[in-house]
Structures are given as C-alpha cells and as structure tokens.
Fold this sequence. Notes:
Layout: E1 8-10, H1 26-35, E2 40-44, H2 48-60, E3 64-69, H3 77-87, E4 91-94, H4 103-119, E5 124-128, H5 137-146, E6 151-154
Parallel strand pairs: 1-2, 2-3, 3-4, 4-5, 5-6
Amino acid sequence: MAQKLLVYQSLWAMERRRPDGHEWALDEKLGMIRDAGFDGCGVRFIDPPFAREVTSFLRKHNMTWQAQCYPQSVDDLKPVLALVNELGADHLNLQADVRPYTLEDCVPYIDGWRKLAAEEGVELHIETHRDRMTTDLFFTLHLLDRFPDLRFTADLSHTWWGGNSPDRP
C-alpha cells in the first residue's frame, strides 16, 4: 500500500465558542479550509444531514474527507458504515469512546470494528485522542504490538509535548 499524508482541518476546531454567540456559517468554515490549502476535513458521520451538506461542498471543490465517529460499542459503528457507503470517505476515523483498562479488554472492540469495516470495504483508522482508548501513548504502543497493521490518525493536539508537567520545566 502506498503511503500518503493527507492534512485535514477538524470542523470541530472551527467552532468559535465566543461568549457573544457569533459563529461562522458552515459555508464560511468550509471556504476557509479550502482556501488554506487543506486536503479536506474531518466530518462527523453521526449526524447524517450535516455529513451530507459538508461532503457535498467538499466533493464540489475536489477535496476529500475522513468520516468521524465515536462508538461506545461495536454495533455503534453499523449506522456510520451505512452512511460511509452512501457518501464515501477517504477512510473512517474512529475515536474509540471506551476506556478499557487492559489490552485484552480492547481486543473485542478493535476486532469487532475492524471486522465490520472490512465487510463494508472501508479503511479504518483509530484516532489517538485524550480520554479515549488511545489516551496513553505507551498503551497505544501495546495496541500496535497486538495489532501491527492497525492504522492510526494522529491528532497531535491530544499528545503531551511537555512544558506543563510538574516534573519538567
């Protein structure tokens, strides 16, 4: 498989959350993403009307997207995969919204999600993310030992870079 690096802007990160309630319109956000030269964006596929609107814009502008989801069970992935089959996606970006304590507790989730995605012909990536299965990078390395071909989406904003630890300046 050929390697490729796609750089996506998160639509979630485009939310301004200003106290005055002023928010950019969706088409403004998407225009800014396009004009900044991103390959595309991450699109929440848990909201079908939103996903349809965003992917329509991206398709019209020859951009790509990752389908984002946050399953808490294996079966939570089924409606997301149905929407991916309808709208397409470069890949499915899964934030595992579970917090198993041991590696073995993770296996049924990852095996189940991978099986469902493979049955639908959808490439699956697990996102590194705080407060999720992959919150700890050492634990994530153990996941890679167990699943050496597991693909990841690196959300570097959730990675500790130093500077705020009591043990480091």
